[in-house]
Amino acid sequence: MVIAVKSLVPACDTNAHGDVVRGAITLALQNGGAVDISFAGISAATTSFVNAAFVDLLDTMTLADIKARVRILHSSRQINDMIKARLTREAGRIAA
Amino acid sequence: MTAPLTVTIPYRFSGLTMTELVNQITAAVGGGQLPQVIIVDFGRLGFIEPAGIVFLSNLIHWLRERERNVQFTNLAPRTAPIAFLDDSEFFIAHMGEPLIAAARPRPTTIPYTRVAQGESHDWLDNRFIPWLGGRLNQSAATLAPFRACVSELINNIADHTMFDIGGIAAQHFPQMNRIEIAVADFGLGIPGSVQRVRPELSHADSIMLACQPGFTTQSTPRNRGAGLDYLLSVVGSHRGTLSIFSGNATVCYRARDDGSMVPTASPTVGYCPGTLIQIEFRTDLIVPAEEEEIFEW
Known about the structure:
heterodimer, A: mainly alpha, three-stranded parallel β-sheet, 11% strand, B: alpha/beta, 10 strands
């Protein structure tokens, strides 16, 4: 299953944008398996977006689970760095 | 009816001097009402930075929203700074027309723009990044950190003020390999927001606490306090500076050689309503990035 972010939101700037993407991720993972998130057409993501789209997944999933089941595709270095940094930091905060 | 108040823009109008304008207003008003007519005198102006343009424009909007008649004086002769403002569409924005018909935006500037969070992605993707990319001959992927930084600043306005509109201006100084971007709002201000949860802190300490990773006033429940920290990391990696003007304080973060950012706090001469954040970074330190990079944990 591939979720094309650009088909869901115009940009990855706000919490609201992230909520939409997280909703799609959650739905896709409901029946088990993995999901691909394509950032084709999106060059950048903010902390607000990543918090809502990915960090909030930690409410119901472990970081290990997210790493195993959520794949990021067609993304820029900035998006990759942002996702990794935010998830690592917030998962560490939960574990502490 | 109170007499018209004339306020004089200082010679160098920047983040450091903008509160002189507010001082003139508050000194004249005392405990009374704002005059109905406020005259902005451009006669002394010698140089204006993006922060000055944004602050002045926000102030004019704020006064007009309170039904004050804002007028301008000493716009002639058309000195270099007046011409710069004209080319920056300042007089179109505030008088409805340029001073001269030949005024045109300069390729080195993004004129003052009021951007609401809801339409910011359109402005970022179709105006700001194409301008920045054209100036620096870099791709959108390479400039993604700067797009994210400006978007963080716009989100900050929406999260921490009752408005979601901020003013923004930018300028490229090619001779100095530098870009300056200023974003400002006339909301509660960072100290006002932080002091809701930490009332004992000074304005300067409030600003520095707001920049700590993980600190949040929970002004919106989703806020995890990561945006300003991200800004600092991007500006630091480009050996730039990030200056925050809010309330009675100015905090300037400067980059060390290793990219870490060191704050210096100083009391503002006067008061800055809302928050103005100015970032500047070196363009010769931008590292080109591929359009796509394989994601690996």
